[in-house]
Each structure stands twice: as C-alpha cells, then as structure tokens.
Design brief:
There is one protein chain. By secondary structure, the protein is α+β, with helices and mostly antiparallel strands. The protein is 28% helix and 25% strand. It has helices at residues 25-32, 47-64, 113-129, 143-151; strands at residues 9-11, 15-18, 68-73, 79-86, 99-104, 133-138, 155-156, 162-163, 175-182. Strand 1 and strand 2 (15-18) form a beta hairpin. The two termini are 23 Å apart.
Length: 183
C-alpha cells in the first residue's frame, strides 16, 4: 500500500521517504563517518560537513521540487540514510541531468532498501516531475550500487563512462560508470 507521491513524502511497503528533520542530523553524521559507507566517495564527512549536506539537500527541494529524501524504516522509524533525485552540480557530457542516488547505513545493506526506495524516487520523477531520463553513476568497483542500478533497469554504455571533474586526476575514484533509465 502506498500513499500519493508528494515532494515531502513517499511511502513504499517498508519505507518512508520524507523530508529531513533536526533529529536526523546525528544519525546521518554517524553514517557519513563510516569508512565502509564512504569507501567509494570522496571520503568520510565531519559532523559539520554532514549537516551542511542536509542543508544543501533541503535547498534542492526548494529549487527543484524534488531531492534526496531521508529514508526511514516504517516498522521502527529508524533512519537508514537517503535516496532520491538530485541535479549534479558539475559539467559533464551528460549534464544537465537528474540523478537517482542513495546512501544507506551499513546495517541497512542487503535488504533491498536501496532498490525499493530508488524505484519510488524514480516513479516520482517520471510520473510527477515529468522527467524523460534519469542517470546514476559511481566508480566501477562499487558493485553493490551497480547491482541496484541494474535491478532498476538502468543500462550502462561504456562509451558514457567519464572522469569525475571534482576529483583529482590521480584519485583512484576519479573514473565513473554512467547508467541511464528513460521513460
């Protein structure tokens, strides 16, 4: 059972995708400080950086009418991380674009939450926002996220792969694979 999609809240069978609350800041900072969670990102975040990320996410909702929702498990109200839609803030051959992305606490891995939440976010993007295409990207070695992209029906063309412009040329995380999903 799901409720109507709104920019503020989306429900799935097991999850609530919702706007951010003050009480989310501490658990989100804990998640962002976990080296396993940030293994394929530019690095762990400090509390201040994590809080600033929530502020940027919330500003994105105001600007675009969508964003990266806080993901809460409905059975117990536990914050699992985020999933949603964002506009990449860098120039690449595929931008401007809308990206579907996720970041979940390690304890939430392996339960299908990322796929379930991303499907809901994509449904919102295609149905309510009217998007025609959504992309997702990560480093080639991030097999967990790539598996989610593939479960979502996204396709990968190696010709689309790119060097992330916000990472140093010597970074082992600079090369990214790009996946696409069209209506």
């Amino acid at each position: 059972m799901s409720t109507p999609w709104t920019p503020d809240e989306i429900q799935t069978e097991r999850l609530l995708l919702r706007r951010w609350r003050a009480a989310d800041r501490a658990p989100f900072a804990h998640l962002n400080a976990d080296p396993a969670v940030t293994e394929f990102l530019a690095g762990a975040l400090t509390r201040e950086q994590s809080d600033a990320m929530i502020d940027r996410i919330e500003a994105g909702f105001a600007e675009h009418g969508f964003g990266l929702w806080a993901v809460e498990r409905r059975s117990d109200g536990l914050l699992l991380g985020f999933t949603g839609l964002s506009v990449p803030a860098f120039d690449a051959h595929f931008t401007p674009a809308v990206e579907v992305g996720w970041r979940l606490a390690r304890a939430a891995w392996g339960h299908g939450y990322a796929t379930e939440a991303a499907r809901a976010a994509l449904g919102f993007g295609f149905t309510k926002v009217g998007l025609e295409e959504v992309v997702s990207f990560t480093v080639p070695q991030n097999v967990r996220s790539r598996a989610v992209m593939e479960r979502l029906g996204m396709t990968h063309d190696p010709a689309d792969d790119f060097d992330h412009p916000r990472l140093e040329a010597a970074s082992p995380l600079r090369r990214h694979v790009l996946y696409r999903l069209q209506v």
